[in-house]
Amino acid sequence: MGRRINVLPDDGRPLTGFALALRALRENSGSPSLTRLAKKTGYAQPRLSELFNARRVPHDDLVHDVVQALGGDPQAWLARLKTLREAEEEFQAAAERQGDSPEARLARLEYENKRLLTLTLHPDSVIAQANSAAEAAAARMERATALEAQARSVLSEAMAQVQQAHERMPDVERQAESILAEARAKADRHVLLARMEHDQIVQEANDRADAVRRKAQQEASALKQRAIEDAKAHREKAAAQTDRMLSEVDLLRGEAEQAVQRSETQRSNMERRAKIEIERLVRAVQKGLDTVGAAEEAHLLELLLIDFNINESHTEVKGRHARRQPETGPATDSPAQVAEAAIPGQAPQPVDADDAQLWRPWGFPQRQV
To answer: Considering only the top CATH level, what class is 14-121?
Structure first.
């Protein structure tokens, strides 16, 4: 339902009648709002407002699109628009003739001259019009006489009814007073019953509200206690889980330390075994070299053992890795001793200080934990 537009009074102007007819068509189509009609027709709201408020004579396209949007016959309304333009021109001319300006007076004189010329040139038509007007006036007079007689009869009947009403007025007043008294008594009883029912309803409502309030407080207390218990259980459970996780962490830390110690022990054992195996292999090679008379090569192997810190370092090992003494003689422990016992029958070679610095202890690198 669209917004109601301003009331348009019928002032007799043809344009006003055309706008009122358009308003009636709009009401029959459901009274769409100007905004909706503007979206449907493509015209701005001010132009539609001018159309429905009789501000100016509209264009053909505007009337055609609006009537089509409202479900009317555009061609019939265009014909009415053509008639409207002619009637509006005559209305404007008549309005101008009613003024006091010289142009208006001249227009009135021209209009009177045309009317007199018509009477002069066509007197028969004028007489016929006068006769028809007289006949119409006579018919109106007869109808007026009949209406006057009917009105008098109705008036006499009304006077009789008024007289009867005056005669019956005391009885009517007494009946009215009794009816009013009875009505007041009934009203008082209804008010009393209503007050009693109201008090009873209020009391019941208060009792129910108190019961609901007590029940709500009990439920709230129970929920609060349950929440406290749940929170306590959750805290205990979280603490137990935390303790268990800390115990597991400590256990894992101990296992990791044990694993590190085992790996370190294994690394030391493997290092010792590797040194023993290297020394055993070198001694075997030295024995072979001594057998074939390659004393210099055997001396170089001895220097290699010294360089790797393997010479006479694992004599305490038992089992198959125990160190075996070479059959060619005791092993040397220093570069000077190795130089003296390297080649039998030859004078010992002096050991250079720079070479002596090269004979520093050597071992496998320590594993970083």
So the answer is: mainly alpha
